[in-house]
């Protein structure tokens, strides 16, 4: 079978396997790329759109012997760190913006078949009726736009040990002009409740905590709830959550946007030019997904 997904425990096992034999495999002239990483691509949670795209890549590129390891974003970056520190081979699912591109020297493998599509966008989606019920929040959410550099500062702060809420507060304090653009034309409220849902990607943790702080400063009683992609879209569609800043379109969350078409409102694009794909350290001598067949 082309599609082989193994669980979180395998991420831990794989990290030890890489530590034990990765260097020997990387330096052996007899080893193929697949042999050097045990024909494994380290992924994240199984419900993520990038995992579905990578499943498709395995099929389209006829990588029948390869396995996609599911786990979490944290497990993936931990495994990356262990391999990178020893200059051992590793292949992961990746996306940017992400702090790992600032910390490590990484590259995307070329995707000649276009499985991962062109550049993605991060959208803000809201439940039906939010504009009428919470017009001030609706305006702030629809105004929310920032750069990869902005997000990167928050992600790195969190990665270095700062709590997400504190990292967000630091950024908001340091960027009053940008915050003023988001809140322009709005009035403060007195304790109105709003619930935001988000997926546990470093990028979405950063953006959701920042906008949560902005809403809180405007007088809202804000609840931030971390869920997987499916429940996130379901919550916005059925109205049990007010909004999410974690919709990656047109590819990553395509299935969810089509499933819930007409049951949510797309109220703004917070970032353009984001990307997903298969990522390796630059010290690995491969450049394309096609090279995984060698």
Précis, in short:
With 294 residues, this protein is α/β, with parallel strands linked by helices. It has 13 helices and ten strands.
Q: What does this 3D model show about the protein?
A:
With 294 residues, the protein is α/β, with parallel strands linked by helices. It is 44% helix and 21% strand. It contains 13 helices and 10 strands. Strands 4, 5, 6, 9 and 10 form a 5-stranded antiparallel beta sheet that branches. The chain has a 3-stranded parallel beta sheet with strand order 1-3-2. Strands 7-8 form a two-stranded parallel ribbon. The longest helix is centred in the N-terminal third of the chain and has 20 residues.
Descriptive terms for the model:
disordered N terminus; alpha/beta; 44% helix; three-stranded parallel beta sheet; 294 residues; five-stranded antiparallel beta sheet; 13 helices
Write the layout of secondary structure elements.
Layout (H helix, E strand, L loop, with lengths): L4 E2 L1 H20 L5 H4 L3 E3 L6 H12 L6 E3 L3 H13 L6 E5 L3 H4 L2 E3 L11 E8 L2 H4 L1 H9 L4 H12 L4 H11 L1 H8 L9 E6 L3 H16 L3 E6 L2 H10 L4 E7 L4 H6 L4 E18 L13
Parallel strand pairs: 1-3, 2-3, 7-8
Antiparallel strand pairs: 4-10, 5-10, 6-9, 6-10
Helix pairs in contact: 1-4, 8-9, 8-11, 9-11
Structural class: alpha/beta
What overall form do the CA principal axes indicate? globular
Radius of gyration: 20 Å
Q: Which strand-content bin applies to the residues?
A: 15-25%
Our measurement of the CA-to-CA distance between the termini, rounded to an integer number of angstroms, reads 19 Å
Major sheet: 5 strands, antiparallel
Task: Provide the residue-averaged pLDDT.
Answer: 89
Order of helices and strands: EHHEHEHEHEEHHHHHEHEHEHE
Question: Percent helix among the residues?
Answer: 40-55%
Number of helices: 13
Low-confidence stretches: 1-30
The beta-strand count equals 10
């Amino acid at each position: 079978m082309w599609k082989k997904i193994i669980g979180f425990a395998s991420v831990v096992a794989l990290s030890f396997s890489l530590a034990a034999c990765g260097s020997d495999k990387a330096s052996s002239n007899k080893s193929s790329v697949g042999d050097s990483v045990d024909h494994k691509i380290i992924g994240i949670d199984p419900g993520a759109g990038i995992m579905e795209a990578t499943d498709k890549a395995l099929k389209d590129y006829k990588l029948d012997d390869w396995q996609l390891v599911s786990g979490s974003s944290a497990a993936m970056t931990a495994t990356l760190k262990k391999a990178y520190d020893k200059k051992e081979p590793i292949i992961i699912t990746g996306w940017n913006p992400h702090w790992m591109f600032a910390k490590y020297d990484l590259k995307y493998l070329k995707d000649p078949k276009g499985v991962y599509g062109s550049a993605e966008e991060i959208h803000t989606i809201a439940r039906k009726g939010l504009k009428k019920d919470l017009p001030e929040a609706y305006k702030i959410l629809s105004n929310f736009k920032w750069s990869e550099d902005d997000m990167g500062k928050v992600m790195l702060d969190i990665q270095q040990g700062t709590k997400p809420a504190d990292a967000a507060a630091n950024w908001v304090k340091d960027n009053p002009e940008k915050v003023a653009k988001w809140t322009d034309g709005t009035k403060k409220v007195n304790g109105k409740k709003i619930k935001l849902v988000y997926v546990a990607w470093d990028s979405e943790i950063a953006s959701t905590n920042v906008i949560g702080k902005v809403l809180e400063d405007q007088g809202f009683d804000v609840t931030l709830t971390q869920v997987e992609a499916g429940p996130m879209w379901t919550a916005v569609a059925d109205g049990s959550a007010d909004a999410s800043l974690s919709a990656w379109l047109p590819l990553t969350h395509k299935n969810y946007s089509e499933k819930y078409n007409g049951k949510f409102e797309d109220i703004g694009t917070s970032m353009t030019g984001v990307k997903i794909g298969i990522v390796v350290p630059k010290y690995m001598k491969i450049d394309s997904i096609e090279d995984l067949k060698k």
